[in-house]
Amino acid sequence: MTLSAEVVVRRGDFVLDAGLVVGAGEVLALLGPNGSGKSTFLGALAGLVPVTAGSVSVNERALTRMSAGERMSVPPHARRVGLLGQEPLLFPHLSAMHNVAFGVRAGHGRRVAADRLAEQWLADVGLAGFEERRPAELSGGQQQRVAIARALAAEPDLLLLDEPMASLDVEAASSIRTLLRERLSSTRTTTVLVTHDVVDVVVLADRVVTLERGRIADSGSASDVLGRPVNGFAASLAGLNLLAGRVTGRGLVAVANGHIFAGSGDLPPVGSEAWVAFPRSAVTVREPGAEPNPAVENSWVGTVAALEPAAGGIRIVLAGDEVIAEVPSSQVLARRLGSGSAVSLHVEPEFVTVYPRHGQAQDATDWKRASD
Ligand SMILES: Nc1ncnc2c1ncn2[C@@H]1O[C@H](COP(=O)(O)OP(=O)(O)OP(=O)(O)O)[C@@H](O)[C@H]1O
């Protein structure tokens, strides 16, 4: 089933004005900073949030048509659209099997064999033997498995996933992610997945769209959007620093604060605007006193504004500098770094990617201000 949506939704001062096409069986990840309109978009697709103008259809079936001459919206329960959020929202008084059987009946519109199919679904999500348990007798991860079985058993034309792993611990999230991947590909369910987790994108998504302030900011394959980001949100999700600059020489880009970066990639001509991207983890903190020569690229001095936890170490946030460094905690301890410490930083050119910047009015940190 192919989803086509082009909607305008007004919520107070906020306006969502965005379109999506998701191919049959495709999993599209919808990313964006807090408040960019992801849940509003899912709500519009599910029929839970009123659409001001535009249309939503799945294959040839219109779900919403809002124009000057027509106001039509299929109610949520009649859309054949499944919605699964952070919370499993199971019926507490029903057993796991009856929760799933409810989904089966919703999809098939009849009672026949619902329990048998539900049993099969529970086995498919790794819960054989748990049929008679009520939600309160299941772990959070097991409850989410039941919710996935219930949603997919209804054979929805479109499945909407709103951060389905966000409230699970790392281990449960990982197994639910694997389960979703198997089930979505075997059922070829057209899916829109909202997430803040890069692992969800890498494991589940065929394609990625980023939203910023209610508009589509970028779209493409996961490797395009995360490997060559054009906004700070996607860069941050990918663990990259992203700086806007201008090409000053072959492979050299001067960024806003005057630092020069040498890198490689799809090099635009001298004088044109370019992005400079490099992993936060590729930034090294040098010994104090090893002051950089300002004439040498990729080295600069900063002041530590804050130290934060990061995967595998400590994130160094610099004062008045967009660059973030993620280093092993041993480096921070050895150099006794703390708020206010001066640091000498460096990134090897082999980690620096340069690519053209076409007419993007926003700078890489705009999204932070937008989500404040
Ligand atoms: N019921 C509502 N009434 C009015 N405005 C709302 C309502 N719900 C959300 N908004 C506004 O709509 C905008 C988009 O919110 P939305 O929840 O869609 O963003 P999001 O991208 O899903 O954010 P998050 O990642 O934090 O969940 C925000 O500015 C929010 O304040």
UniProtKB/TrEMBL annotation:
This protein is called ABC transporter ATP-binding protein
- Pfam annotation, one family: ABC_tran
Gene Ontology terms, MF aspect = ATP binding; ATP hydrolysis activity
Record key words, sorted: ATP-binding, Nucleotide-binding
Organism for this UniProt entry: Terrimesophilobacter mesophilus
Q: What SUPFAM superfamilies does the record point to?
A: MOP-like, P-loop containing nucleoside triphosphate hydrolases
- The source's domain of life comes to Bacteria
Tell me the InterPro entries matching this sequence: AAA+_ATPase, ABC_SmlMolc_Importer, ABC_transporter-like_ATP-bd, ABC_transporter-like_CS, Mo/tungstate-bd_C_term_dom, P-loop_NTPase
